[in-house]
């Protein structure tokens, strides 16, 4: 069992020693190689996971083109909550960008956490609230922000992992072609 995972849960909620002893039975270790799927588009999401090590990319396919929807790195929770909660096929894939170690909980095991850990429901709510806020900001930015503003927001969102993300994926995330990203970066560097 990962101490990082336990620390992450303890950051969100109080966890008794007895409750902590339950966790190893509720999470399973998942290792992904670069380009392995944690979730494939069209499949129903059946688990959520904590990233101990590595980096994943949320990808949507739009008219045959992969669009970067989000990125998650160490000490973050990963999953497609829309698919997980609705039990409908996922509209995006989650793919490892580098070798990745996850601690995954199935729907049933997550329910056991809610039922047996005193503040388990609170943990789930806090994780979902965090995902919701990030998603809302991203949607608002795509509709109201300029490409330059979205580029700055990218660095705010992914400050700790941005150096591990290729430029063409950054361009996709902010909604421009790689050539446009080069022009944006050039304009911004002249301003500073």
Automatic annotation (TrEMBL):
Superkingdom per UniProt: Bacteria
Q: Name one Pfam family in it.
A: cNMP_binding
Q: Where is the Cyclic nucleotide-binding domain?
A: 11-113
- What InterPro entries does UniProt report for this protein, alphabetically? cNMP-bd_dom, cNMP-bd_dom_sf, RmlC-like_jellyroll
Entry-linked Gene3D superfamilies: Jelly Rolls (2.60.120.10)
Q: What is this protein called?
A: Crp/Fnr family transcriptional regulator
Identify the species of origin. Chitinophaga hostae
């Amino acid at each position: 069992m990962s101490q990082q995972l336990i620390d992450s849960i303890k950051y969100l909620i109080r966890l008794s020693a007895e409750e902590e002893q339950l966790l190893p039975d509720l999470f399973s270790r998942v290792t992904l190689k670069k380009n392995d799927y944690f979730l494939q588009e069209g499949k129903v999401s059946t688990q959520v996971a904590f990233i101990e090590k590595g980096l994943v990319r949320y990808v949507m396919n739009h008219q045959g083109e992969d669009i970067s929807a989000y990125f998650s790195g160490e000490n973050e929770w990963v999953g497609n909550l829309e698919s997980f909660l609705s039990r409908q096929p996922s509209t995006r894939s989650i793919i490892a960008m580098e070798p990745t170690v996850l601690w995954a909980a199935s729907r049933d095991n997550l329910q056991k956490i809610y039922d047996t850990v005193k503040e388990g429901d609170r943990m789930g709510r806090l994780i979902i609230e965090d995902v919701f806020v990030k998603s809302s900001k991203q949607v608002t930015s795509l509709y109201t922000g300029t490409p330059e503003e979205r580029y700055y927001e990218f660095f705010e969102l992914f400050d700790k992992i941005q150096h591990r993300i290729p430029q063409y994926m950054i361009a996709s995330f902010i909604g421009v072609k790689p050539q446009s990203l080069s022009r944006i970066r050039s304009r911004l560097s002249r301003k500073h």
